[in-house]
Every structure is written in structure tokens, then in C-alpha cells.
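This entry is passed on directly below:
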Amino acid sequence: MKRDFLLEIGTEEIPARFMEPALQQMREVAEALLSELRLDKEEICTYGTPRRLVLYIKGLAEEQRGQRIEVRGPARKAAFDAEGRPTKAAEGFARSQGVRVEDLVVRQIEQGEYVFAVKDEPGRPTMEVLPDFCLRFIRSLSFPKPMRWGYGEMRFARPIRWLLALFGEEVVPFELEGAPAGDGFLRSGRVTYGHRFLSSGPIEVRDPDHYFRVMRENYVIVDQEERKREIWRQVQETAARYGGRVDEDPELLEENAHLLEYPTALCGTFAEEFLALPEEVIITPMREHQRYFPVRDETGRLLNRFIALRNGDDRYLDIVREGNEKVLRARLSDARFFFEEDLKQPLIAGLEKLKKIVFQEKLGTLYEKVERLERLASAIFDHLGGGDGGSREDLVRAARLAKADLVTNMVYEFPELQGIMGREYALRQGEKEEVARAIFEHYLPRFADDELPASDIGRILSVADKADTLAGCFAIGIQPTGSQDPYALRRQALGIIHILSSWEKELSLRWLLEQALAGYRQKVAMVAPEEEIISQLLEFFRARLRNLLLEEGFAYDSIDAVLAAGFDRLREVRKRLAAVEEFRKTEACVDLHTAYTRANNLAKKAPAGGEVNPSLFQEQAEEELYQAYNLLRQEGDALLQQGAYGEFLARAAAVKPVIDNFFEQVMVMIEDEEVKNNRLRLLREIRDYLAQVADPGLLQV
């Protein structure tokens, strides 16, 4: 028999940003506990609103699975005498385990022969197990900023006010410390509460299935996915009613869904005069501060309307609309004031103010960062032989202005607008379009799936800015640990990877990092020699790149093989990876793996340095292998130059018969040191050349 189980944790309002991680964590914790407690189930569902977290387990078994327990006792020689009779040690062990002496079994394990007590333990009824499950489940949940309340030490996202726990129609009884009054304990029951304002008093729930229906009747949509669908439907319909549309915005939709329990959309307006402001100046306070959806017409032009969500029904909606309009009007008035004040000063005037703003205590001010940015961006520009769609002077000008908007009123009030306002002010103050665009683009990409810089000087400036931050932080020993990454170094590294991987120009990653680190030479006390810091940075990039490629669906061993062959030219990594994935479908892949492995087994013993000397060859097979290797290099170099990586791999695999013949005919490890080392060097050169595209030894064939 199976029944559904429901646990509702009623709380004060939980911040929206806590909800998605909490729902995922709830599922993982429940899965682990059910497995540990040997409770079978059909499905685990987790739901949440601002005032409740809900665990719903469908088809939970009525009792635990039974288990066989084997307990090790004394060694066989201590448990039985020479005639095979049980000793006092065996009798005592059997008695302690509740089994008969004759039921003890002897097993051979690594330490020798030992006696074991074998017991079949039946499963307990689920109702006996669930109280402990509920307590452990609640106490296992963690949050970024947990609170303590009442008289106990219990911590949770927000104070817990009620507990509902039902297994079918039965209440699962348990107590949780943390009640603000009485004896300091909350007790589970079948009572819940609906919408804070639209529902009155406690609600009794008959069983888990009844719960969702009764909650809907009391103005609570428990399922967050259902709330999202309902919000999006209302938003679209409301916008269409006023001749507009709303662009998809999953983040804003999710945040709204976790801010309310019963959504009702409304359309508000603001004065048309505000439309003279840049779009971002209007949308940012609307979206980031008020969680409103901007409305556009069919051509994409912003309208003086917005869609807001009310946590409740449609009663007195006009009053709610007026309140939302009043708040937005004040926000937009402030934004217009900041914008107009900022325009009274040239953007370049902000440069001097950057001397008073610390970028990082040991790395100096933002003004010093701008100076490094100019130098590094110029070096990249020269190294690449110029850039398309912008001159060196444009790049230097953009670098000088890149951080100037950080001291404007608008960015001080709305930090999300950094770069955006720099572009707007630059354009309105007569800067070249290429310069203004690069000021904005140097922050790209700002988050996952964000756009990448489209202009060369924007790409150069973005890469230079991120490389400077990474090099500086690593130079003084700041590296991300666990979830701690205050300078967003992982995001900075991923940004460089995305830009260099998609750019038609080739830029060496090592060269870039060396140039960036050189900007700190004699200016900061580095925690290690420069080469060691560069190695740490490259390993940091390798780890980011590996994770990114895994997310894209490439096989882990293909990734490891390609990265082992180098990732200095990021644009080529995916090309090599795609060629390896395709090559693995062929029989030739096994040949290449075998050829490489045979060469590598002895190549590892080759002495450092030195070149192959053909005059030391003593066997025809040596000469044949050397000639085959030279021919491979002639043809392979041309294929590598063309980027024909798949053809290179196929051609490299063709050397297998010659390598096989070499090992059949030639004894490598002989007493003549000179001849032996010459043969080892030949194998080392062949091994290294076969690994130009990927390390074949890392492929699981």
C-alpha cells in the first residue's frame, strides 16, 4: 500500500532570491533521507510561496524495506577451538547480537576468517519513521542568511509559524523548537493558513490531495510553476488590451512568482515626457526596483505603460494602480534629475575623481586601473596589428573614459547602468560612436548568455579589463574558494574565454596574461614568482573552460585530451574538440591510441633535451620509423596549418604499422647508452607529434 505525504513549513515572508535554491535543496535532502530510511516513493515534488515551503511525496510506501544486517565478530580461531566447538567469545558475541551460536557464519575477508551474525531486520511502519524524517528534513535546510527567533537555537530562512504534516489522512506528530510563546515548541497538525489578507483564520486539511484544492479556494497558488504560467498569461493579456506587448524576461517572471501567492496583473502609466530619457534609464528603476514589466508597441518602441503584479484579487485595483504609478513617477523624476545633472559635466571630468576611489586595497585606485587598461589595450591592439572598425586613438580614448561613469549620479543610484550611462553620456557629449560603443562593450558579457562585444576595440577593451583584474588578484593571492568569489573572477575568466573563442583574430592567452601581470611589476608585492602566477592563472582558465565544454555536452575524456594538447589559442579548442569527437567514431581512433601508448611507454624514459641522430641507427626498422615520422611531419604540418584536424588525426593513426614493426624488430633498452637514448628520443618526438591535436592516451577507447 502507498499513501501521499505532505509537509508544509509555514513562515514569515521568505525573500524571493532564497526560493529557487531552497526548492532544489528540499528535493535533494528528501531524496537522501528517504534512501537512508529505506522508504520507497513514486515522486518528490517541492513547492514554495513567500509564506510556505511544501514537500509533497507521491506514493510513499506504508513501511520501510527490510534489510539484512551482517555484524562481524571475533576471528574464527578465537570463536572456535581445535575441535570446532564454540568458545566463550563466540557465545558472548551471539548473545549480544540476539542470534543462536549455531547460526553464526564464517566469512573470509581481507584480514582473515571471521564469524558474522546475520540478522534479517523487518521494516518499521512509515508512520513511526516520519516524525524523525520531518525533524531532520527541516533542520537540514540551509539559507544564505538564516534567522533565530523565540527562545531556542533553531535557525531558518524566516521564523516558522506553523507546521502541517499529513501521511494520507493521518497527522504526523512531531515538535520543533522555536515557538515565540508558550513552552517554546511548535507542534505539527493538519492546520494551515491561506492568503494573509484574503483568507480568514486557520484552515483544516483533510489529506494531501485536499490541500491544493483548499489552498486555491483561499487565494494561494502553491505551485510556483503554475504561478509563473498564470502571471505570464495575465501580463501578456493585460499588455495586449492596451495595444502593447511585453518581452520575455524569465528572471523578472521568476522573481515576481516568488513575491506573491495569488497574482493579479494591472497596467499603469507614466508621463510621456519621461520617454525622452534613454530607454535603460526608464527600464532600470521600473524593473530592478519595482519589478514592473515594461510595455512596448509592435515595432519595439517603449510605451509609457507598465505591468505590475498585485498579491491579491482585483478588488480596489484602481487604488493599487495609483499607488504604483506614484512610486514610479518619483523614481523616474529622480532618474531624470540625475541624468540632467550628469550631462552638465563632461564625462572626462570623472577621471580625476577616480583617483579617490580604491579599486582594491593592494592594487591601487580606479585611476591606476585606467592607466593599466590604456597600456594593456594598446599592447593588444599593436600585437594584433590593429582592429576593424576603430583606430588606436579611439581605443585609447575609450580606455580613458571606460570607468568615468562610475562617479556619475546615475550610476551611483543605479549601479546596473555602468557602461550603459558611459555610452549615453559619451554620445550626447560628442564622442565618436566607436568610442561610446566600446565604453559599453568593455563590461560584456555581464552574465551567462549575455551578448558579447561586437566591435574590435570593444573586444580588446573588455579582454584587457578582465585580464587586468585577474592578474592583479592572483598576484596578491586572491583566488576564488568554494562559493566565495567577491571579485567575480570566474565570470571574468569565462568572459575572456567566450570573447577569444568567438573572435576571428587569434590572441594567445598566455601572452595576454603575461602582459596583464607585467602591469603590476614593481607596483605590488607579488605572492609568488611571475611564472608561478601565470601557471595558476592558466590552470584557473583550464578549469573554467573544461566546465564550460562539459556543459555543452562534449565527452569528458575528449575534453581532457584536447586541453592536454594546449588551449592557448581558445578559438581552435572547439574545432579540435569537434574533430576528436568525430574521429572517435572511426576504427582509426584505436590505431592512434595504440600507436601513441606504445611510443609513450618508453618515451617517458628519454633523457631531457637532445635531438635524434640518424647516424646512430643500427636497424632498418629504425630508419623506416624515422622516415615515416618525417613524412608525417611534412603532411601533418600542412594539415594543422589549414585547421584540418580530423584529417591530421587520420594521418597520424596511419603510423601505427610502422611503430608496431619498430617494436617487433628493435630492442630499445640496450646497454649502449648512446644508441638507447637516441631510440628513446625518436619515440619521444613521435609521441609529442601525435599529441598535436589531442593527447590520444587520455581517450577511453
In short: The two ends are 47 Å apart (CA to CA). The chain has five domains: 2-64+125-217, 67-121, 224-343, 358-553, 572-698. Residues 2-64+125-217 form one domain. The chain has a mean pLDDT of 94.
